[in-house]
Specification:
Length: 281
Amino acid sequence: MPTGMELCLAAQDRLEAAGVDDASRDASALFLHVLHQVLGPQVKRHHLAAHLQEPACPELIAAFDAAIDARARRQPVSQITGRRAFWDHDFIVTPDTLDPRPETEALIGAALDLPWDSVLDLGTGTGAILVSLLAARVGARGLGCDISPAALDVARRNAHLIGVSATFRQSDWFSAIGERFDLIVSNPPYIALAEMGDLAPEVREWEPHLALTDGADGLSAYRHIAAGVADHLTPDGHVLVEIGHRQGRDVQAIFRAAGAGTRLIADLDGRDRVVLARFDD
C-alpha cells in the first residue's frame, strides 16, 4: 500500500496538471479531511506527519482519490470538505452559498467598532457575517435574509451549530422586511456581468451566480440597498457593504445621493473593501 506521503505527492502532481494554485496545500488539506472521514475527528492536524509516513488503508485511498478528483475539476476545497474558517468560527459551506472570504472580515471588524443592538444582513448566504457579529455581541438581535431558500437552510444550520440566536427570512432585498435596525450589512453580488469570464473556475463554475453578479454593471444591489435604508434604519443608524476594490467611488456616490455620509474601509491587503454609510437623523 502507498504511504500517505506518496498519495499526497501523486495528488499534488494531478492538481498542478489541472491548473490548481498551491496544489501542495490543497493536497494536504484534503488528506487531513479524509483522515477525519475514515478515522474520525480525533485525528488532529499535528497527527498528520505520522499518517503521512504510514501505509494508507484501502478506504482512505478511495476517499482521497474522490476528493482529489473533485479538486481537479476545480471544485473549491471548502465545498469538498463542507467547511470554511471565517472570523472566529468554522462555517458550513455548500454549492448553494458563496464561500466566506478573508477580505469580508474587514466588514466584521468595522461593524464591531460601531454602536448597535440590532442588525440586518441582506443576502446572508452562509450567515457568516450575521452569525459572527451576533456571536461577538451577546444580547444583540439579528435578522438574515436571502432570496435563496437553500442558502437560508445553510445559514440556519450555521447559527445552530455555533450557538447563536438569529432569525432568517426569505426576502428579495427589503421586500419582506418591515422592521428597523441599528445596522444594515451586506456582501451583495457586485461582479459585473462583463467580468464573470475573468473569474477563477472555482468561483465561476461552482459558486451560485445569483450571489456573484447582478447580471449588469455590478452596482444594482447598492442601488436597491440605498433606496430602502431610510425605511429600515433606526435614527443615526449605519450601513456597511462589501465592495469590489475598484467600486469605492461609485458606491459612495450611490449612498451620498441617498443622503448618507460615507467612508471607505480597506482590507488587510490595503484595497478598498467596505463602504460605511451613516444616516444622521
